[in-house]
């Protein structure tokens, strides 16, 4: 791989990492594992129930910490249930031997976030979750904590994804403004753009009784993460409709699926990521699954702008959301090259041209 590449690595460059030995795997790669700007990560054959979340720190491997903090080791080869409120660590099939000019970041897959499964990738000696430094050689692990639904996982299940970066691809406010003027990144009449990205707001509009979101039910049956269209929506979700003047009170520690007011567009030569919301503006977390691939909402990929589905959880105190309130920002980054395939019809993507939409598991 050329050290002159600058930006997010596209699909063919991720394949080249495998060919060069910078990426390796314990089992033959899945045919659809490489996405336009990321690689799906697969669970290995064993899992560990741990006392609590942890970081290995600068002088420890994850395996060292598992010897101290693991309560129980069990197999995933025939499938296993992960319970809500528990923390698990699973060694991943994929292993890295990154060149010195390539670094990586991870994020939950969209369906993982929409199931309220909290996941974070760990690397040896890491002092941050979901970040892998340039030149890292070693294994990867996934911390998993189901929050609302118990889940069934197995060896090979894909809950997280990883992106590879060279250089500094993030657009500044002026560059983002220029791209928005050229490619219309959101449908907002007056886009709110800063160095932190382009703002997205919440959609709670409509006539009284209009569906505006869903709240996850407690004490449900389990969800098999690999099973599509297998579960009745009504057994797992409570619909939320617009009432009164349109505000929504987020109850502490409840999980909500909401949708952005603006439709979003990611041009084929860029990728985007939803950033954590500023806690100074409100004690709630928006969007666990932050990667938006090249072609999301793009007409060439079968979209005409797609809403951003928002996974929302309030912390500590009730919090009132109002229609049009800013809830997050999209950071745009340059691709090192346009991917061979775009998010959308070329990949039978689940969430192209979406509105308010639950994960692929529900009907």
From TrEMBL:
One of its GO terms (molecular function) is dCTP deaminase activity. Residues 6-167 form the 2'-deoxycytidine 5'-triphosphate deaminase N-terminal domain. CDD domains: trimeric_dUTPase (cd07557). Residues 173-362 form the 2'-deoxycytidine 5'-triphosphate deaminase C-terminal domain. Keywords: Hydrolase, Nucleotide metabolism. Pfam families: DCD_C (PF22569), DCD_N (PF06559). Its EC number is 3.5.4.13. InterPro entries: DCD_C, DCD_N, dUTPase-like_sf, dUTPase_trimeric. This is 2'-deoxycytidine 5'-triphosphate deaminase.
């Amino acid at each position: 791989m050329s050290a002159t590449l600058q930006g997010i690595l596209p699909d063919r460059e991720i394949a080249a990492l495998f060919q060069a030995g910078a990426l390796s795997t314990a089992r033959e790669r899945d045919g659809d594992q490489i996405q336009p700007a990321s690689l799906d990560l697969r669970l290995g054959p064993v899992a560990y129930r741990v006392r609590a979340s942890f970081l290995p720190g600068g002088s420890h491997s994850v395996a060292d910490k598992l010897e101290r903090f693991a309560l129980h080791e069990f197999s995933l080869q025939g499938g296993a249930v992960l319970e809500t409120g528990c923390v698990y660590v699973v060694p991943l099939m994929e292993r890295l031997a990154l060149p010195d000019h390539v670094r990586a970041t991870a994020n939950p897959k969209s369906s993982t976030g929409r199931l309220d499964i909290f996941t974070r990738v760990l690397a040896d000696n890491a002092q941050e979750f979901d970040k892998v430094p340039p030149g890292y050689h070693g294994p990867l692990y996934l911390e998993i904590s189901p929050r609302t639904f118990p889940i069934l996982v197995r060896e090979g299940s894909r809950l997280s994804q990883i992106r590879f970066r060279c250089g500094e691809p993030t657009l500044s406010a002026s560059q983002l403004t220029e791209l928005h003027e050229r490619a219309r990144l959101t449908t907002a009449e007056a886009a709110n753009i800063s160095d932190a990205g382009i703002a997205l707001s919440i959609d709670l509009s409509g006539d009284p009784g209009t569906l505006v979101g869903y709240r996850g039910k407690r004490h449900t049956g389990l969800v098999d993460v690999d099973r599509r269209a297998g579960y009745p929506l009504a057994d797992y979700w409570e619909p939320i409709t617009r009432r009164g003047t349109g505000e929504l009170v987020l109850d502490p520690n409840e999980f909500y699926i909401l949708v952005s007011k603006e439709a979003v567009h990611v041009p084929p030569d860029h990728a985007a990521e939803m950033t954590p919301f500023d806690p100074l503006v409100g004690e709630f977390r928006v969007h666990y699954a932050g990667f938006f691939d090249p072609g999301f909402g793009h007409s060439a990929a079968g979209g005409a702008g797609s809403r951003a589905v928002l996974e929302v959880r309030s912390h500590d105190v009730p919090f009132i959301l109002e229609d049009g309130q800013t809830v997050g920002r999209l950071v745009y980054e340059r691709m090192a090259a346009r991917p061979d395939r775009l998010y959308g019809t070329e990949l039978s993507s689940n969430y192209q041209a979406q509105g308010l939409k639950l994960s692929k598991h529900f009907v």
